[in-house]
Design goal:
Elements lengths: L7 H10 L4 H19 L2 E4 L1 H16 L11 E5 L26 H8 L3 E6 L19 E2 L2 E5 L5 H8 L5 E6 L5 H7 L2 E4 L19 E6 L2 H11 L17 H9 L5 H10 L18 E5 L9 H16 L3 E5 L4 H19 L25 H12 L2 H14 L5 H24 L2 E5 L15 H6 L7 H4 L3 E8 L5 E7 L5 H15 L9
Parallel strand pairs: 2-3, 2-6, 9-10, 9-11
Antiparallel strand pairs: 1-3, 4-5, 6-8, 7-8, 7-12, 11-13, 12-13
Helix pairs in contact: 2-3, 5-6, 7-17, 11-13, 11-14
Length: 523
C-alpha cells in the first residue's frame, strides 16, 4: 500500500485499526517528496525532522488511547504565507527570504492541537499575487499532469503537492480564485470559505477584505473533515465570524452590533459549538436542490473542451434529479475591473510594511561604513526595489494610484459601490436557488511562460473566480473530468453566506458519479 496516496478518511481509519503508524505515513510522504518534488517544485521547505517528531508523538497518544481525532497523525503542507513560529516563512518573496516569524497563525495552532503533522511549506505567487506561481521568487511549480504547464495560482504549491500525493492535504488562500483555480488545474478539491469563517490571524495578507483561508484535499469528505477543525471564531481576527446560527442573517446581525464587549466575546467563543459538523450533511439527498446556471459564466471565452466537460457535469447532475435552470448575474462584467482595483489598493497598503526597517531584507548593510551614503528614503527604495518582484511592484503602483487623492473617487470608491451591487445580486439569486454552478476557469492549465509577460491576459483568466470574493460567499472546485489532452477541469459550486454544508453536499454527490477525483497523474 502506498500510504501517501490515501485520503484523510482512509488514513485515519488505518491509523485507528493499527494497520500502520503516523510515522509510517509521514515517512511515505517524505519519500514521495524526495522522489518527485525535483520535477514539480511544490515545496519551498521540508521539515522532515519536525514532522517525524510530531508523528511519533501522535503514535504515542494513540497507544495511550488519547488520540485527538481524525486529523491526528495526518501529514499536510502549508502555503508559505502562514506564519509558524521559528519556521522560515517567505511569501515566496526575496524581501522575506530569511524571515522567521515570532508567532504562529491561528489555523496552524488549531491543526497542531488536532495532531496534524506539518511536513513543510509550499510555493505560491509572491504574496499570493498571481494565477500561476510564476511570480514566486523561488521558481514556478509545475503541473503534475503536464510538467510543461503551470499548477495554477497562487496556491499552486498546495494543489500540486496534494495532486502528486506528497501530502494528504494542504492549506491555501483565496483572494480571487487562488484555491479554486489551482485545484481545478491539478484535479484536487479546493474550498474557498465564507469570508471570516476561518481566522486569517498570522497569515500574510494580499487584499484583506477578500482574503480567505481554505483546504485543498483529495476528496470532498476530506475537505469537510479539515473544515471541522479550522473553522470558527477567533478574537485575534477582527473580521472573524461570531457564529450564532446556521443562517447568514444571524451572522450579519451580530456583526452590525456596535462593539464586541466581553460578554459578547465570550458568547462568540462559545458559539463555536454551534458550528455545524461539516461531515454530517455530506450524504444528504440532493434531489430537492434547485441550481442556477448564470449565463455570464458560460460566455464566448470558455474553451470548447472546458465547455464539454462542464455540460457533461450538468447532465450528470440532472440525471440525479437536481433541478437546473439558466439564470443571470449581469454585474459579472464588472467583476474583473472592480476586483483588481480593490485588491491592488489594499495590496499597496498591506505591502507598505516591508520597508527594510521592520522585517526581512534590508538595504542597510551590517557593516556601518557601507551605510554612510544611505538616507531613509534610499533604504526604502533600494530594499523595495531589490526585494519585490514585478507583480508586487505593479500592485503597489496600481493601488497607490487608485487610492491617491485625485483618483480615489473615480476608482476605489466607485469600485466599492459596484462591489455592493455584485453582493446584492448574489443575495437575490440565493433567494431563488440553493446553489449556482459554473466552470472554475475558462481554460485548463496553460503553458509555463504563456501569459506571464501579459498581465492583463493573466488577470482576465480569473473571470470566473473573482466575482465570488467581493460577494464574500463560499465556493468549491471539484474535479469534473479531463480535456481530450488529459488536462483536469474543475466544476465550481457557489453558495450563499455560510452555505458550506450545502456546497459540500452537492460536491460530494457529484464526485461520486464519475469519481474523477480518484484519477492520479503519472509522475
Ligand atoms: N489571480 C488573482 C490575483 O492575482 C487572485 C489571487 C489570489 O486569489 N490570491 O489577484
Amino acid at each position: 500500500m502506498e500510504l501517501n496516496k490515501l485520503t484523510i478518511k482512509e488514513a485515519s481509519e488505518g491509523l485507528k485499526k493499527g494497520e500502520f503508524t503516523s510515522v509510517d505515513l509521514t515517512k511515505a510522504c517524505l519519500e514521495r517528496i524526495k522522489e518527485v518534488d525535483k520535477k514539480i517544485n511544490a515545496f519551498l521547505l521540508v521539515d522532515g525532522e519536525g514532522a517525524l517528531k510530531a508523528a511519533a508523538e501522535s503514535d504515542k497518544r494513540r497507544k495511550e488511547k488519547k488520540s485527538l481525532g481524525q486529523l491526528d497523525g495526518i501529514p499536510y503542507a502549508l502555503k508559505d504565507v502562514f506564519c509558524v513560529e521559528g519556521m522560515k516563512t517567505t511569501a515566496a518573496s526575496k524581501i522575506l527570504e530569511d524571515f522567521i516569524p515570532p508567532y504562529s497563525a491561528t489555523v496552524y495552532e488549531k491543526l497542531r492541537d488536532a495532531g496534524a503533522v506539518l511536513l513543510g511549506k509550499v510555493n505560491t505567487d509572491e504574496f499570493t499575487m498571481g494565477s500561476s506561481t510564476e511570480n514566486s521568487a523561488f521558481g514556478v511549480t509545475k503541473n503534475p499532469w503536464d510538467l510543461t504547464r503551470v499548477s495554477g495560482g497562487s496556491s499552486g504549491g498546495s494543489a500540486a503537492a496534494v495532486a502528486a500525493d506528497e501530502c494528504l492535504f494542504a492549506l491555501g488562500t483565496d483572494t480571487g480564485g487562488s484555491i479554486r483555480q489551482p485545484a481545478s488545474f491539478c484535479s484536487t478539491v479546493g474550498l474557498k470559505v465564507t469570508y471570516g469563517l476561518v481566522s486569517r490571524y498570522g497569515v500574510m495578507s494580499y487584499a484583506s477584505s477578500f482574503d480567505t483561508i481554505g483546504p485543498l484535499a483529495k476528496s470532498t469528505e476530506d475537505i469537510a473533515i479539515i473544515l471541522n477543525t479550522i473553522a470558527g471564531y477567533d478574537e485575534k481576527d477582527g473580521t472573524s465570524v461570531p457564529y450564532s446560527s446556521r443562517e447568514s442573517r444571524g451572522w450579519r446581525d451580530e456583526s452590525r452590533s456596535k462593539e464586541l464587549g466581553s460578554s459578547r466575546l465570550a458568547r462568540a467563543r462559545s458559539n463555536n459549538n454551534l458550528l455545524p459538523d461539516y461531515t454530517k450533511s455530506l450524504n444528504k439527498d440532493i434531489k430537492e436542490m434547485k441550481i442556477g446556471l448564470p449565463k455570464e459564466f458560460f460566455g464566448k471565452g470558455i474553451e470548447s473542451e472546458v465547455r464539454r466537460v462542464i455540460e457533461k457535469a450538468i447532465e450528470d447532475l440532472k440525471k440525479m434529479g437536481v433541478k437546473i435552470e439558466e439564470t443571470s448575474l449581469p454585474s459579472t462584467k464588472y467583476a474583473i475591473a472592480i476586483y483588481y482595483i480593490i485588491a491592488k489598493s489594499e495590496a499597496s497598503s498591506n505591502l507598505s510594511r516591508y520597508d527594510g526597517i521592520k522585517y526581512g531584507m534590508s538595504a542597510i548593510s551590517k557593516q556601518p561604513s557601507a551605510n554612510s551614503k544611505l538616507d531613509l528614503r534610499s533604504v526604502y527604495t533600494k530594499t523595495r526595489g531589490d526585494g519585490f518582484g514585478p507583480e508586487a511592484k505593479r500592485s503597489i503602483m496600481l493601488g497607490t494610484y487608485t487610492l491617491s487623492a485625485g483618483y480615489y473617487d473615480a476608482y476605489y470608491k466607485k469600485a466599492s459601490q459596484v462591489r455592493t451591487l455584485i453582493k446584492e445580486e448574489y443575495e437575490e439569486l440565493f433567494k431563488k436557488f440553493d446553489l449556482l454552478i459554473s466552470p472554475v476557469s475558462p481554460t485548463p492549465s496553460f503553458k509555463i511562460g504563456e501569459k506571464i509577460d501579459d498581465p492583463l491576459t493573466m488577470y482576465l483568466s480569473d473571470v470566473l473566480t473573482v466575482p465570488i470574493n467581493p460577494a464574500g460567499i463560499p465556493a468549491v472546485s471539484v474535479p469534473a473530468g479531463f480535456t481530450k489532452d488529459g488536462l483536469p477541469v474543475g466544476l465550481q459550486i457557489m453558495g450563499p453566506m455560510l452555505g458550506e454544508p450545502k456546497i459540500l453536499q452537492l460536491a460530494r454527490s457529484y464526485e461520486e458519479i464519475n469519481k474523477w477525483y480518484k484519477r492520479k497523474p503519472n509522475l
